[in-house]
Fold each of these.
Amino acid sequence: MEDIIIRNIEEKDIPDVVDIQINGWKSAYKGIVDDNILNSMNRNERIEKRRNDYKENGFIVAELNNQVVGFCRYIDSNKLTQGISDIDCELLALYVKPDLKYNGIGTKLFQFVINEFKDKNKTKMILWCLKDNEPSKKFYIKMGGKIIKERVIEIGEKEYLEVGFEYNV
């Protein structure tokens, strides 16, 4: 998919980003995250949340034929993953429309973020992924990551294991 454009998010992209995230969760986390959580994701609440925070950190979208088909969020600090001293940046989220996965969109988003971090002289990136999300784990390993840590997170009222992938930027 050569015509993919990676660019900063604009406010008009927020509904598409929210739809991609909700559909991504329902697709990737079915059988992993409790169905009640997946079925109760409120689009309007998420749109409002994004309107309040879309300018806070690195937030990019992938566009194909004038449609947003994926997005990525990242920060150039380790403020969300403390306790691993050499980590200096983090990829927070990477989503691609479920029906367009395996077309290079995720790879382009990932590479864009790595290049951003290189430009800022960052050296070690981390990203977290649900431990039971095998397709995403395979992608993150293919992109050069190695699992260095596990942690417990809470989604709804249940606990889930995440694995942290480390990358040399």
Amino acid sequence: MKVLTVYKSKSGASMYYAEEIARALGGEAVNYRRLPQEKADLVIYCAGVNCGKVDGYKALRPKLEALGKELWVAASCLMVPNDKLRADVASKSGIPEESLYLMRGRMSRSRLGWVDRLIVNAYGRSIEKKTEKTQEDHEIINALAFPTSFTEIKYILPIIKAVREKSE
């Protein structure tokens, strides 16, 4: 099975995950700006979650679908992945839930453009206003204040397993 891993990365987490997925599956990771001509059996799009949606998915979807027989999405976010978050992101992004994998990402405000910085600042303020904060809220507040990485190789394991099962 030929797998193409495409990434769009602002903080570097999606690129990291795309490269690790490609390495595990024997392929290569390519930036969304340099899409190849050859088709694949499966395209895995790695990008961050921004305002509850997968960054760039809506605009790139037609091109990604044209490159492969099937399209999966691996999205990185600051929050701990869970079923509710997955359902919310899938719904807001227009992605079939069974084709979406979530992974924890990283944050470095210095790598963001001014629009994304405004969004991140507003998000941080909304969390800081909470009267009762969870451990995850505190982690996100810290991640927005200081360069932070939650990336772990364990987040790609379900993707690798699913691709290998599909190949059999």
Amino acid sequence: MLAKRIIPCLDVKDGKTVKGVNFVNFRNAGDPVELGKKYSDDGADELVYLDITASHEGRKTFIDLVTRVAENINIPFTVGGGIGSVADVEKLLDAGADKVSVNSSALRNPSLIDGIVSRFGSQVCVLAIDARFTDGDWLCYVNGGRVPTERHLFEWAREGADRGAGEILFTSMDHDGVKTGFACEALSRLSEELPIPVIASGGAGEYSHFYEVFTEGKADAALAAGIFHFNEIAIDGLKHYLYDRNINIRL
């Protein structure tokens, strides 16, 4: 069985790392390159960098940031935000990214997934899905959680997997930043229904939440932001906690 992964996420706005609650009320969390290097040194398995306003404002993810990150860390990292074409992906990979995350653009044009996969392989394509539980169902949102769609979490995730995406990164907008635990019920269903790894995002607040997401939620990886940025949880301590509870984790 593959080891579970701990993935710090760095939401980048105007070149700064920020962290919000329920996708709003952002506060500054530091330099994205310095933080990435710290997490790499501290034992993180991977990193995710998301330009959280790129889709909304019609900008492209900053290539120079990706280049500087690649020069300073020695673990894989994923970049997302404002990716609308295979050419965008090529530029990011050339700058040093290992994977790309597509969200709004893929929902509007699902064939983007096919294009990325056919050109670079499934391992490069992470399908990110932001969803909120509404009237008994999980509805997908685009543009950094600003705009609801008519697509449903489970059917869209299945389509993404069928089109060749290598992983699903599911963020529960209801759980984002509130530190009460991950959306384990939805994550468990995703993990059972999909043939590809599921990354959990939204809700981490304490050690036990990671144990729950790997056991009850059946996630392959757990992503978190604020608890790492503001030194509420240390990656090394978290990994030893999980290891002591028989979770397959790299120390």
Amino acid sequence: MSWQEIFGNAARLEHLKKILAEGKFPHAVIFSGAAGIGKRKIAETCAKVLLCENPSGGEACGVCESCKLIRAGSHPDFKIVEPEETKSAPNIKIGQIREMQAETALQPNLSNRRVVIIDGAELMNTPAANCLLKTLEEPTGQTTFILVTANRAGLLMTVRSRCITVNFDKLSAEQIKNALENRGVGSGRAETISLIADGSFGRALQLESSGGYEIRESALNFLERLCTNKIDTEEIFQQGAQYSDGSRESFGDFVTYIQKILRDIYLLDAEKLYNPDLKSRLNKIKIPETNLLAMFDEGTKIQRRLKSNANLRLMAESYFFRLRLALNN
């Protein structure tokens, strides 16, 4: 957790270092921006500086007891609150906020303050958010709150109004490509992944590790064959069976790539495509506008259904049939 490990958003990082050096870091701040761009790492780096015994110029010393404990993940005055898995969807519950409040009501153990990071803050349920609001309105002790979110609009307006917001931009494809190459990914593959990662290094790492590169190719092949009437009912059932043996995340990625490819076909002459490296192949896929929008709508519906407990195989088969129907209506 150091500034040197973070890339992108240089101006905002310099601003954060400046207010840390001047002792003007807000008591409650929202770090907002797309998922996977490094907001959590930036928040942890700020926490390290805030808790450091000998900070200088907005940098932590890295050698004091506080820095060592943060590095070891055992600093008594540093807490991270994260969503918990539930039967429906991950969320942050009121019990987690109350537990945090009980800790922050006490005097710090080692440093002169406490720092709390709430990661995925938009996933606080309403009771949890209202509970946090009371603390933000009437803070007890010297506690700094950093709310990390990929969806600022998902936070209660009353919570947003009590915090200073720092917005972070998506990363450039070149920055992601360089970072991937530094991790040993081949230049060609790194370039392709950087183009489809949509400005998210976290997404790029997921693509590299989980076969997302191959899933995108599978999605494009499926659309190409669907549009040339080469996918029959039997193959649809086979495709459904294939995804029933995988994960919801894998099928969700497949649908996401279909959506992005359809969007690129619709805006083929736009300057910024999700898949610029596929432009020549996309140009050969001819779908009437009305049908294309209907197919995109089916993808939106299935993305919502993926958040439910519906049977994955039935969802996949239904999606494939509905795509074919939307294409041919």
